[in-house]
Amino acid sequence: TETSPIAFLAKSHIDTEKWIEESDLDYTILKNNLYMDFLPMFFGEKVLETGIFLPAGKGKAAFTLRNEMAEATANILIEDGHINKSYNFSNSENPSIQELADILGSITGKSIKYVSPDQETYKKVLTEAGVPADYIGVFAGFAEAINQGELENHAGDLEKVLRRKPTSASEFLNKVYNKS
Q1: CA-to-CA distance for 1 and 171, rounded, in angstroms?
Q2: 3-state secondary structure of 9
Q3: How far apart are CA 69 and CA 31, in angstroms?
């Protein structure tokens, strides 16, 4: 919707999907959820020392690996039966940022604090840290979308097309942060 914190990104996707569906063209629409691969960027380089500072509240998201969405896309391309269908490529699980902080803590043996500031405080702190304004806008927008529940999804399309459960956040974070 136009009031979405990620409307700057979503509007063009929604409009394009509508135009394609209204056309006489055959189509298959793939809707990718928020990339799990971006979690370390959202957390920051010093997450193990400073914790997670992100205005996502208690919202949840179906973070999904890009390579699994690519694999599912390849499956669709080599199979029949996908004409004029839409798929929501989202993970089967929908963790909150607090749950991710807890997972990170269990992986590293450290206490990972999660602070969800208001949007203005978040933007001010990132600006003072020298983060470019464009990045701040994107991070703040996606965090608010998580907070509002826009990225929570239980469709199960990705799991069906992959024919297996997608990689969990715990598995991904273990790969990235387990240094043993």
Answers
A1: 33
A2: helix
A3: 10
Cβ-Cβ contacts under 8 Å for 31 (sequence gap 6 or more): 13, 17, 86, 87, 88, 89
Round to whole Å and give the CA distance between 155 and 137.
28
The set of residues, in sequence order, having a beta carbon less than 8 Å from that of 112 and lying 6+ positions away, is 47, 48, 51, 52, 101, 102, 104, 105
CB 104, CB 83: distance < 8 Å: no
Gap between the Cα atoms of 33 and 90, Å rounded: 5
Tell me the pLDDT tens digit for each residue of 23-81.
999 999 999 999 999 999 999 999 999 999 999 999 999 999 999 999 999 999 999 99
CA gap 73, 70 in Å, rounded: 5
pTM for this predicted structure: 0.88
**Angular region, 163: left φ>0, alpha ψ -120 to 50, beta rest:** left
**DSSP codes, 12-80:** HHHHHHHHHHHSSS--EEEEE--BGGGHHHHH-TTHHHH-EE---TT-B---B-HHHHHHHHHHHHHSS
Q: Tokens 């056309």 sit at which residue?
A: 23
The confidence score (pLDDT) of residue 17 equals: 81
Tokens matching residue 62: 């179906």
Q: What are phi and psi of 79, to 5 degrees?
A: -115, 160
